[in-house]
Amino acid sequence: MQKYEPNSKTRKNAHIGSIEDYKKLYEHSINNPEDFWAEQAERITWFKKWDKIWEWDFNKANITWFEGAKLNACYNCVDRHVDAGYGAKTALIWEGNNPDETRNYNYNELLEKVQLTANALKNLGVGKGDRVCIYMQMIPELAIAVLACARIGAVHSVVFGAFAPDSLEARINDSECKVLITQDTGVRGTKNDIPMKSNADIAVKKTPSIENILVVKRTGSPIEMVEGRDVWWHNALASSDAECAPEEMDAEDPLFILYTSGSTGKPKGVMHTTGGYMVYTSTTHHYIFDYHPDEIYWCTADIGWITGHSYIIYGPMANRAVTMMFEGVPNYPDFGRFWEIIEKHKVNKFYTAPTALRALMKEGDKWPNKYNLDSLKILGTVGEPIKEPEWLWYHNIIGKEKCPIVDTWWQTETGGILITPLPGVTTTKPGSATLPFFGIIPELLDDEGNVLEGNEVEGNLAMQRPWPGMMRTVYGDHQRFFETYFEKFPGKYFSGDGCKRDEDGYYWITGRVDDVIIVSGHNLGTAEIEGSIGGHPSVAEAAVVGYPHEIKGNSIYAFVTLRTGHEITEDTRTEIIKRVRADIGPHASPEKIQFTEGLPKTRSGKIMRRILRNIASDNIDDLGDISTLADPSVVSSLVDERI
Ligand code: PRX
């Protein structure tokens, strides 16, 4: 396999410019973790320094960083840059869904808006520790709302704007949010009236904790406003005071909750705290994107996911980056949109998902070739394994062979990037996330938990020790935190991913080894989808698996058994799909539905998903051992009737 060295120009300007320097700092971070993290923590402005760098016990899932320290995340992202004289510098560039819509906020303007919003929230009775749910599309007010919550010490819970009312309701109820922030309707690609407020109205019918809904006017489409409960954002800001002092938060006070899919139908509220998260996101953003002042940095993720939290808002803004956010989609108005935006704003650092690259690559080189992409210096990917064809396309056609690619591996739970190349350091191999970041000790474990030493091994990916950005608990359910991440391999953090280490010690993520399927970079729990399908009155049982998909990485295949006497009709199929879209959201719809008389089960009644995965992926020559099935005969009909 061909390897790609960082070019000499990148190396020369990089914060770290040689593998020797990386190794030196890595060893320092491992041998003297307390010194290393105390040094990195200097990036953050603390109101009071910590008493202790870290304390942890993975056997109890207890982790603290910078205990005793005081800080405010919003102050670190906004105020201190104004105080240092950068108020007139651009903080946020917003590119709207339609190409003629752009808005820029400098740090002065951002501070002004954030303070007004913070006071508007206070006027609605929101205080330190209260939860605020944010359900929006990618408009600037989303970033402002997040920062305003951080400013007053309210815990934000951003729910991705494509989620259906039921999913929104479940997330609001789990953390008992007091206020919901949304917008009238949304625009995204050819959709110009996404029903945000009316979805919110449906959700809040069953969320007793919500006292008010704050509504941003994005489109002006008519919506219902409930007297006494619903407040227009612009009115609330107009009657707010201009000044709002940032709350002094403890390092271990919660900053946000973000829900992710798990092995049960109930989403997990991943909780991150303040001090460690800020240190980790700013440190990783600095080194991995090799950020230098005034560079234009664009992460295409949605703020509804962790990538948007850590690498659109907190990391870059703590580093006084010019950070961009984009409301639209890569194929609207045409397949050149990303490249047009890069040319228009002279983007230097670009961070996107493999699924977007695959979709764009398929449309041919003519789209990127129409635009001047000379401003690009570093390219990043995240969210799922990148395969060689799209890696090479990214390298050759987008990066013109001069931009290092950082394939960054991490998770909602990790808060920031753990395994990644560094642009001025790492010789890359397409498809490998390469080497651990500072302070990170990855381990590969066999199923019994034995550590696989040396190179050329494959196993379960775990971390030997904590890092400042890792999650601290599952909101309201510390036992679930322990069981999900620390029980299977005692004393380690288990990621749920499989991974190989090659002959050079490089890491290659092989995908999830649990019941999570990653579709177009979105994590979906099989249990959640099965629960939704199972809610259809004709359905007796459903099992959902992933199968490889050219663009989405994986797609969803559902095996469905109907209740006796219920007939299979085209309507049943459509209704099932509709149901999943309504319960979870369009991103969770099954691409294929196979109706079957029975599912492959062990004698104890456990569905053998391995067999279903093989059938769905068309690997029918090697289904694996079927002798332990209660009724092996179901397999042949499943194979014959596969779609
Ligand atoms: O399976 C891994 C995959 O995405 C999972 C985490 O998903 P989520 O919590 O939604 O966070 C996505 C953004 C950080 C991981 O367990 N994944 C993430 N990055 C990569 C990846 N798989 C391969 N290569 C990556 N670079």
UniProtKB/TrEMBL annotation:
CoA binds at T307, N331, S520, R581. Residues 528-606 form the AMP-binding enzyme C-terminal domain. The keyword ATP-binding applies. Transmembrane segments: none annotated. Its cofactor is Mg(2+). ATP binds at G383, E384, P385, D407, T408, W409, W410, Q411, T412, D497, R512. Acetylated. Deacetylation by the SIR2-homolog deacetylase activates the enzyme. Residues 84-473 form the AMP-dependent synthetase/ligase domain. GO terms for cellular component: cytosol. It is an enzyme of class 6 (ligase). Residues 22-77 form the Acetyl-coenzyme A synthetase N-terminal domain. It holds the Pfam family ACAS_N. It comes from the Archaea. Belongs to the ATP-dependent AMP-binding enzyme family. This is Acetyl-coenzyme A synthetase.
